[in-house]
Write a structure and sequence with these properties.
The protein is an alpha/beta fold. The chain is built from 26 helices and 16 strands. The strands form 4 sheets. It has a 6-stranded parallel beta sheet. It has a 6-stranded parallel beta sheet with strand order 13-12-11-14-15-16, sandwiched between helices.
Length: 664
């Protein structure tokens, strides 16, 4: 991959204007980024690893398996299908474990807050009571604190459950989906238990049947989507506030010349929210002025950036692939991280400048970084210690470059509750208008664009896919770094309705919403599960998620978490499309994921390489669902005369073109 450097020779593969501008500056002359490393590798990926048929689960190997060749089995006799299934399942387990450890910290933080410890508070009492009902907690006549403490304790118990009763959140799924999980015996039990069992069953000499391995992979993934991730999202909303629509900005232009720039990177909102509170304290503002700065400018990177963007409107400066680029501006005093997605290279990039990389979690340290442990029990004090380290660097700032005119307006904050209220009104909250506009054809279907960004395809991949979907009247939901990428492309604001087909544009303009709804971080994909389930409950679009004209994609997946997310969507009945899967070296297992698993779960994995191919496959799958529902013919709008109105007999209006806010 060519990159622009000092003269900008040949950088067609980097389309992001702000990235191009930074890498072409003298200030970034000595910086080596992932773009350089991709170019320097000069080698193709290992075919065995890419195909999923390299096994190192014991010390008799490693074994490189060639499917169908007897002499190329594992030393133990393992086939390509067994090895690929075990490797795939371990990826699911690792992704689920990452979300689970994140969620456990959020539950601990919630419980501390419920008990009155720390600087945070219970902000959304309506959602608190709603979630308490899911856990069979009595709320009538009780103090908020008592309800919250009981909820926190019951939520924490979900991780270590040892009996065979299902996780509490699973009752939110459709009855048909719950019955299917019970039939297949893949109801998740204790959240931690499913990860442990997955690792055990993929140990040498245990489970060799690829379909049986994948049943446990589904159970493990479901313990993430309907367990840990959903817990994290719901409790975070209760503690910090359920997101509501707000305008904000994204991209590198959100850095400020005259202020202390602090990038908050990682995934656990406890740190980010505490930094937000501490940055408003007068002693911190005074310290900034004492060091020559006009103020403190917090910006987000990666998913923790999406969290504070959704709730506070704090800008997101960069997604995953831009984390080195934001440091290369020379304008950042510190990048503060907790867990997940921090590239170890950022310490090397920071060494070219006055910038500190500050790690804050004992799980995640980095050579070349400063470690300041974030103590949740003294959250504000810890946050101030971190800010002080960063503020003192402002005087050391040398030459820097902040891209001009690259800030992009976004409208974010589309939680399940927001969508419900936006469509049906605060007092008649409902998904009915959404369902009706899908049924009448104004909205063709719904597509979820989730997950990471990556260096394998162009950085405009998400944009290409979404522009094709929008012009074909497909409403888009976005999370994670995909949402940040689409924000940079100018697609996450109401003005982007101009890129839609006529009927989707009509709906967006009537409601005043963007055609791409930013729903939060990667852990917040559980919001999409809730939204999809609510669409089913509203009626008219089948009786399970598998019937919906909806599909998801993580086209630039990088993290194991993305595979766990993909598997819990498939196990929930939603089809997904990835750019590639590490399964192609095992013919039977690969076919099972792409076709056979449909017979069990009502959904399957799909693979498509190029962006437009991905988009068109998604539209094809949406149309197939519309055909199955019998709604693929747009209903003509009928103007009723007085005789026709009398024939209605005062009953409810049906099929008369009045299907939601876009009817006029």
């Amino acid at each position: 991959m060519a990159i622009k450097r000092n003269g900008c020779e040949g950088c067609a593969d980097i389309t992001c204007v702000s990235t191009q501008q930074v890498l072409s500056q003298d200030v970034a002359r000595n910086v080596k980024t992932a773009y350089d490393r991709v170019k320097a590798r000069g080698m193709s990926a290992c075919l065995f690893g890419s195909g999923g048929t390299c096994c190192r689960n014991c010390n008799m190997g490693p074994c490189q398996i060639i499917d169908g060749v007897d002499d190329m089995l594992g030393i133990c006799g393992a086939t390509a299908d067994t090895v690929a299934a075990r490797n795939f399942a371990r990826v699911v387990a690792a992704g689920a474990a990452a979300h689970t450890d994140h969620a456990r910290e959020m539950v601990r933080g919630f419980l501390d807050t419920a008990k009155g410890h720390g600087p945070h508070q219970i902000k959304d009492t309506v959602k608190l009571k709603s979630l308490a009902a899911v856990f069979d907690i009595e709320t009538e006549g009780r103090e908020i604190k008592d309800i919250a403490v009981e909820l926190g304790e019951k939520a924490m118990a979900e991780f270590g459950k040892q009996d065979n009763t299902p996780l509490s959140m699973l009752k939110r799924a459709t009855p048909k989906r719950q019955a299917l999980w019970k039939k297949l015996n893949i109801f998740p039990r204790g959240i931690d238990r499913e990860v442990v069992e997955m690792m055990h069953r993929t140990h040498m000499g245990v489970d060799h049947d690829h379909e049986n391995i994948m049943l446990q992979a589904s159970r493990c993934a479901l313990s993430d989507g309907w367990g840990s991730s959903m817990l994290s999202t719901e409790l975070t909303d209760i503690m910090f506030g359920t997101p509501v629509p707000r305008r904000a900005i994204v991209d590198l232009g959100s850095l400020k010349e005259d202020q202390v720039n602090i990038c908050v990177h990682g995934h656990e909102p406890l740190l980010a929210e505490s930094l937000c509170l501490a940055a408003q304290e007068q002693d911190m503002l005074d310290l900034a002025k004492k060091n020559g700065a006009a103020g403190i400018n917090l910006v987000g990177v990666c998913c923790t950036g999406n969290e504070i963007l959704m709730r506070r409107g704090i800008p997101v400066a960069a997604g995953f692939i831009q984390q080195e680029i934001v440091l290369s501006t020379g304008a950042v005093e510190a990048m503060v991280g907790d867990v997940q997605c921090l590239m170890p290279s950022i310490a090397n990039v920071a060494s070219n400048f006055h910038t500190d990389i500050i790690t804050t979690n004992y799980r995640a340290k980095m050579p070349g970084a400063v470690h300041i442990q974030f103590e949740e029990e003294q959250a504000l004090e810890s946050a101030k210690q971190i800010l002080t380290q960063a503020i003192k660097n402002f005087k050391k700032r040398g030459k820097f470059f902040i891209p001009k005119d690259t800030k992009m307006d976004v409208v974010v904050g589309f939680s399940h509750e927001t969508i419900n209220n936006m469509l049906g009104g605060r007092f008649r909250a409902s998904y009915r208008p959404l369902n009706d506009n899908i049924i009448n054809g104004r909205i063709r279907g719904v597509a979820a664009i989730v997950g990471c960004d990556n260096f394998q395809l162009g950085d405009n991949t998400h944009e290409i896919i979404v522009r094709e979907l929008l012009k074909n009247n497909v409403l888009v939901l976005a999370t994670g770094c995909a949402a940040t990428s689409l924000g940079r492309a100018g697609l996450v604001n109401p003005e982007a309705a101009r890129f839609c087909g006529d009927s989707l544009r009509e709906v967006c303009e009537a409601v005043g919403m963007p055609p791409v709804l930013h729903m939060g971080s990667c852990v917040d994909n559980s919001r999409i599960l809730i939204a999809a389930t609510e669409m089913v409950r509203q009626g008219g679009l089948g009786d399970d998620i598998t019937d919906l004209p909806a599909i998801g994609t993580a086209p630039l997946w990088m993290s194991e978490k993305a595979v766990a997310i993909g598997q819990y969507f498939v196990a929930s009945g939603a089809q997904v499309v990835f750019q590639d899967l590490p399964t192609t070296g095992a013919k039977n297992f690969n076919k099972y994921l792409l076709e056979g698993i449909m017979g069990q779960l009502g959904a399957h994995w799909n693979v498509a390489k190029e962006p437009l191919e991905i988009a068109r496959l998604m539209i094809e799958k949406i149309d197939a669902k519309r055909d199955a529902l019998g709604i693929n013919k747009k209903k003509e709008r009928v103007l009723f005369d007085m005789d026709m109105r009398r024939d209605l007999g005062g009953g409810p209006l049906k099929d008369v073109g009045c299907h939601g806010p876009s009817a006029s």
